[in-house]
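Hi both,

Apologies for the delay on this - the queue was longer than expected. I finally got the S-adenosylmethionine-bound model through. Below you'll find the protein sequence and the ligand SMILES exactly as submitted, and right after that the structure tokens for the full complex including the ligand.
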Amino acid sequence: MADSPYPELKKSHVPERVGRPWSDHKPPPSAPVWAVISGLGSFHVLVAALELGVFDALTKRGANPGIPPQVTAAELASALEVSAPHLESLLDSLAVLNLLERVGGCYGLNDTAARYLTRDGAASMAALVPVAPGPLENWSDLANTIRSGRPAEPIERNPANFYRPLAEATFTTMLRAASRADLQVRYSAMAAPRVLDLGAGGAPWSIAMLKACRGATAVVNDLDEVIDVARRTTAEHCVADRCEFRQGDFHTIQIEPASYDIVVLGHVCRTEGPDGTQRLIARAWEALRPEGRLLLADYFVAPEPQWNPHSVQMAMTMMASTINGFGIGTGQVANWLREAGFQAIRLIEPIGNQYAYVSTKPATCTT
Ligand SMILES: C[S@@+](CC[C@H](N)C(=O)[O-])C[C@H]1O[C@@H](n2cnc3c(N)ncnc32)[C@H](O)[C@@H]1O
């Protein structure tokens, strides 16, 4: 007879059957604790590999089609001019982390490394890895942050230090998301939309919209010390002549009321926390024309946080390194949008794990 397709349901001593609080009869493995302990080392293994150029060196070796780009640790060490036994240890760690392939004592890129860890990878995260956790010293001081309710070195104290490299590093991924979002938001079908991009970073959303729609123009905002990232990226994508760069704090810069067709709040809300986010939603509302749309992208915490671990980790990063930043919940944001007056609220996922709320200011609205 065929086995049950759900063998786990045969177990009787499971929380689903006997309820919670639940404890197993046998002692649990220590693996989850070890996974956390190794997390610190794993992060630094990857940062070191990127700094040494391991992935790019392996790409170069694979440049000849048909020749497998597999090398020994000694060969790679000689190319990178580093200690061979030390490099071998690093390469083995990368292999067990599934970030390299190790076959018969030789190392090569696997698909993950080729796509995400080489500088020219199709979705390179090479620049993002070292900056994504924020200032590392804040992690060592996390217990104190939780005691006092404030990190010792909040990124707000020197925002350019954190945001400039972050804006550069996230640009490629966000541009992919913003370009794909056109399939659902259809900015390409608009005649001459006026876009307001608050906390634009490298302005991936503005760039995607301006490229999709020849008649579009954008007001691109970011902090004084960060705005030149957007000046450069918009120039590289040949849309700078349709941008007005309006530097300064997005809570206080001048914004013309009822003047924009699209307002973008792209990954700015989780550093703002609930109060700041609601103030930004209110600013967006005032800036939009009737029938204008707000696009609010972030890593939203799911109704049960464990459903989306990545958003919980991003929220944690905000808590560890910013004064006001906390995760913002999927339902919470929908409520704030509704309370502000927005309608037709929908959550889109233009590319995997990148989410955005799209909502509309109703036509009958006079403000
Ligand atoms: C995570 S990045 C997001 C960049 C871009 N919107 C995106 O979706 O990829 C956050 C950006 O908000 C900017 N920012 C943070 N606080 C700001 C403020 N008070 N006023 C204006 N910009 C701010 C940062 O400088 C940074 O470029």
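Main takeaway for now: The chain has a mean pLDDT of 93.

I'll put the files on the shared drive as well.

H.
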